[in-house]
Amino acid sequence: MWIALIVILAILCVLFIIPTGFLFIASLFISRKKEYDTDSPFYRKLLYRGTDAMLWPLRIHVNFTGKEKIPKTKRVFFVYNHVSNFDPILLYTELKDWNISFLSKEENFHVPVFGRIARRCLFLAIDREDPKEALKAINKAADFVKREEVSFGASPEGTRSKTGVLLPFHDGVFKVAKKANAYVVVVCIRDTEKIQEHLLFHRHEVRYDIADVITPEEVAKENVHTIAKRAWDAIYKITGK
Q: Cβ distance 87 to 189 under 8 Å?
């Protein structure tokens, strides 16, 4: 009995305690006040490995269709419908080749360890209540995408839909694609809201579908309202709500 217990504790230590401790120590070297201009390969790997370790016991299986439609460049702006806090997390873990950073609310950067690491991976806080500050974040995201430092992602709804019904899109975030002359990849997300209902006791099947890809030529030709409507329609066509 004691031997089995020691083995279990050793496994837990190797799988969780030591990696978590390392992540914590590594995160302390990241300043909350400094603005970073380059994506860190070291912290990007920590972000991916730390997230994979966190998701492993949750038994989430992502059925992802349409990956082949995504351009093989980081000059991409991903937009998605928002039904769960897992939405962006699963998106960046499923699409590691694109090194996606996100426009996100300020509170997310106060999450211990991961908030600091996300900042070092060029995630940006956006204040939707202050148009001037929001535009600064949009301009910075566009610069990162234009330089192909990272791809960027955002939920145009601006908040999580608690009913699953697709909310109206805010046109402003699409300025990232306009300013960066980038592709807009529209991702339809389904069933992630069910993960928290039975967090540790069920295998979770969720769906991510590439609903549309809008080329830089089309982005340049259309205004942000038209682009937002096309993205909204593409997701609604799949979800039906």
A: yes
